[in-house]
Each structure stands twice: as C-alpha cells, then as structure tokens.
Please model this.
Amino acid sequence: MLSRHPQTETVSALFPFSSGARWRLALASGSLGVALLLSACGKGDAPAAPPGGGMPPPEVGVVTVQPGELGLQTELPGRLEASRVAQVRARAAGILQQRLFQEGSDVKAGQVLFRIDAAPYEAALQSAEAALAKGQANLVQTTALAERYKPLAAANAVSQQEYANAVAAQKLAEADVAAGKAAVTTARINLGHASVTAPIAGRIGRALVTEGALVGQGEATQLAVVQQIHPMYVNFTQSAAEVMRLRRALEAGQFKRAAGGNAASVRVLLEDGSEYPLAGKLLFSDLSVDATTGQITLRAQVPNPDGLLLPGLYVRVRLEQAQAQQAILLPQQAVTRSAQGDTVLAIGADGKPAQRSIQIGGQQGGQWVVLGGLQAGEQVIVDGFQKLRGNPVVKPVPWQGGAKPGAPASGAPAAPASTASAAQ
Model:
C-alpha cells in the first residue's frame, strides 16, 4: 500500500479536490520551486550594473579655440558709376544729316559721331575770309600813305594834320584786319561744330535724335551720352558711428590698421552674391557726414576691362578696415545672443559644459568674430545641445557640420582676402 506524501496531504486538506487534481497541483508546486531556485542562481552569476545608470557620456560637436590675427571685414552697400560721363550735344544749329557710329559701341576721343548741314557755315567762313582780304588790302594802302607822308611832314611839305590822318587811317586798317581774322576763326569754329565729335573715349549709348531732326536751335541739343566704364567707380556709405568706434579702437591699440593705407584693395560682390574677380582700390573717404542719414561717403576704383560692370548697378563692397590680434571665428549656432549678452558653452575641466560670456566684433563669412571671453585650447560646443539635460559629463568630438572644401577650420581665423582702410 502506497504512503502519501506529507505535502500532498496538506494540499488535500486545504483543497478538497479529486485525487487527479491533487496530483496535478502537487506537480505544479514542484516545478515552481525548481524555477525559483534556478532564478536565484542566475542572479548570483550576472555582472553588476555600471554606476550612473549604465549610459555612456553624450557626444557633442565642438571646435577648439585658436586665437590669431584676423582682418575685420565689413560689407557695405554701394552703386557703380562710370569714371567719366560726357553728354554729346549739338553746338551748331541745323539739320542733322548723318549718324556715324553704332549704338552701344566703343568710341575714341575726337571720333566724328554726327554731321550737321554745314552749308551755311561754309558760306559764313567764305564771307569772313573775303572781309579779311578787303581789310588787308586797305591796310596796305594806308600804310604806304603814312610812310610817304612821314618825311614830307618832317620837311613841312605837308601839314601835320594830314600826316596824323594818314597814321590814324593805318591804325584803323590794322584793327579791321584783326577783326577780320577773328571773324574767320569764329566761322571756322562754327563750321567745325557741324561735325559733332566724341569729347572722351568710352562706350556710347543710343542716339537720342535721328537724321532729319533740327538740332541746336536755341539750345545745345543732347544727341547721345558717352561713358567711360574702364575703370569704374563704386560709391558706398558707412555709418559715422562705426567709423568713430573703429578709430577709437585703433587709437587704443585694440586693433591695428589694415595694410595698404589709402590705396588698399576692396572686393565687389554682385547682386547674385558672386564676387567680382578683380580687386579695386579705395580712393578716398569724405570729410563730412551727411546730416540726413549720418553716413560717410567712400569711393573705390574698380578695373572693368571686359565691361562686366555697368553704371548704376547695385553691389556690396567688402573691405578690410582693421586687423584684430587675438580674434576667433565661431559658427553662429554656437553663440547665444540675448539682451543680457552673448554667451557660449565651453567644456570645463570636469568635462561638463560651462557658460562663457564673450565679446563679438561682427560677423564674417557666416561666422561670428569673437574678440574676447575665450582662451586658446578651449572647446566650444557647436552641436548636440539637446543632449545636455541635467548638466552631464560630455564626450567632445570634432564638429564637421560646417566644413567646406578649402575653407579654414572653425575656431581659427581665416587669412584676410582683401584689405582696405576707411578709418584713416
């Protein structure tokens, strides 16, 4: 006869089931015990969890600060202007007979552009020449008479009055000859005005009148415009406050003057954002400030051998007015700007981000120019700000988000592309 297990009897007393159900319940209880035993053994063999929850330090993109000498460039709006402009006008009255140039072409100084009917002026010249010849003949006669009377008057063969009259007639004839010569010269000038020439070399625009038009009647009719577009002038303005601030910084030794002085070069940026390949040079800075706008006018000269630049074109002028000794270039997303000041996040000695107040001196090439607040070798966070919750220890990695082929590394000043000085 089989004996009952004590556990089975206990279960039978608590749960009055059938004998088959009681056996199944006992088997389940044994399996549960084995599982709990194996689980306890597994916990003893598992490795301990790393401190701090087991999460690795978050990676953030950084740039390493490398101060250096940097040219402070400024972009200012400006307009292009022809270096010389001349209006071609009709100085002789008459009917326009010919146009002797092609509109939009290059012309030379003295080149004939228009012809006006010259017949009246040729006739006037011939009349003046005839009057001159008559005066010269009269001068010959009066001179001979005065010379003949001179010895006779000395011998009292003729009266002194007759001799004086002969001398006066000679002087009058000389005056008539001089007036005749002036009339001939005037007639020749008027005849020359019938051929309208280019006053300067340059590019001529469209003709403002056509053949058959009556010009020069009462006023000098404008016929065309000649503009010299090589070289070109670019006129631009800068705030007087900026100029004064720059001069104070130069005097205090914070900046040094850009190389080149008054003949320093400038760069022209076209309307599409491209840079004109040829550098210009700064000519002068105006001595007075516009009372209406508070701006100072500056002018630069730009070569234009191919005629790419056109008068009246809107451009931006990039010029270097000074050089900072210990300047830093930082990507704009690394800087937080607010009414309280400009700040960045730099990685401290403990590996955690720390806020730094910085001094910004403008922007250049899409980056901020930092003049103070950072030390060489510091790592400034540029990317990964969303990972900085709870001020954790971070893992810095070099930031490559803004790298471009041929561009200088972020955090290091670029070599100046052009020089100019408007603060002298």
User: Anything to note?
Assistant: DSSP finds five helices and 20 strands in the chain. The chain has three domains: 61-70+324-398, 73-81+229-322, 84-227. Helices lie at 6-14, 19-45, 119-154, 160-193, 240-251. Residues 119-154 form the longest helix (36 residues).
